[in-house]
Amino acid sequence: MKHAVIAAAVLVFALLCASCASSGGHAPVATDSADSELERSLELGGEILASFRDGDYPRLLRNIPGPMKSVMTEADFRTSRGNMESLGDIRGYEYAFELDTPAVRNLIWRVGFEREDSEGEPVAQDMLFRLVTGTVDGEVKVLSCGFL
Fold first, then answer.
1. 2-147 sits in which CATH class?
2. Max CA pair span of the chain
3. Are 18 and 24 in contact (CB under 8 A)?
4. Looking at residue 13, what is its pLDDT?
5. Burial, 60: exposed, middle or buried (Cβ in 10 Å; 0-12, 13-18, 19+)?
6. Residue 29 to residue 38: CA distance in whole angstroms
7. In terms of pTM, does the model score above 0.90?
C-alpha cells in the first residue's frame, strides 16, 4: 500500500513537473503528506537546480548542510557553472525517479539544456542530476548531489 501511495504521489508530481520544466521554474512539492521525507527531498532538489540555473550561490547555501558549504565555495560554484556553459543554459528540469537504496534517498532529475551551434541553430541536450538525501537528527539533509 505504501508503494502505491508513493507511486501515486510521484505520478502527480511528474505531471506537475511537466509544466514546471517548460516554464523553467523550480520543481513543485509533492502533495503526499504521508511521505514528508520525499516531499522535502524533492523540494531541496528543485531549489539546488534553480540555484544552478539562476547562478544564485546564496540560494544553494540555504539548501545544503554546513559540511557541504565548506566544500562548495562560491568559486567552486562559479567554476561548476562555467563547466556547464558548453551545455548551454538550463531550460527546465523534471523529477524522473528514485533509485531503490537502503538508508538514503537517491533521486534523479532530467535537466534540459539549450545552446546555439556555430550557425546560430538551437541545440538541446539532456543531462541527469542526482540528489542523495538522508534524515539526520530528524531533518532531511543533502548528502551529495551532482550531474551524471
1. alpha beta
2. 53
3. no
4. 31
5. buried
6. 9
7. no
